[in-house]
Amino acid sequence: EEEEQIHVVMCSDIRFLNQTFSAANAGLVDFINSHPLRPISEPLFVPFEERFADKCVEDDGTEVYLY
Fold first, then answer.
1. What is the DSSP letter of 38?
2. What is the pLDDT of residues 29-57, one digit of tens each?
3. Cross-strand bridge partners of residue 65
4. Spatial CA neighbour of 13 closest among 47, 63, 65, 57
5. Rounded distance, CA 30 to CA 26, Å?
């Protein structure tokens, strides 16, 4: 039986990644979501900061668990 891996990411690291890459990747996110060959059944690509925004509050050492 395969063990489930848990990856822990600090909210402060998520904020750093957001500040570093969000602006640079904005065009790529738009391209992926508006590509004419993207299947309708495929969900829109959600930018990194939106995926974890509700799990991080302050830079208080909060951790986010990724499965």
1. S
2. 888 889 888 888 888 877 766 666 677 76
3. 8
4. 63
5. 6
Alpha carbon 29 to its chain's center: 11
27's tokens: 């065009």
pTM greater than 0.70 = no
d(CA 41, CA 29): 17
The C-alpha atoms of residue 21 and residue 6 are separated, in whole angstroms, by 24
Q: Where are the alpha helices (DSSP H) in the chain?
A: 11-34, 48-52
Q: Which two tokens stand for residue 60?
A: 């208080």
**What is the structure's pLDDT at 57?**
66
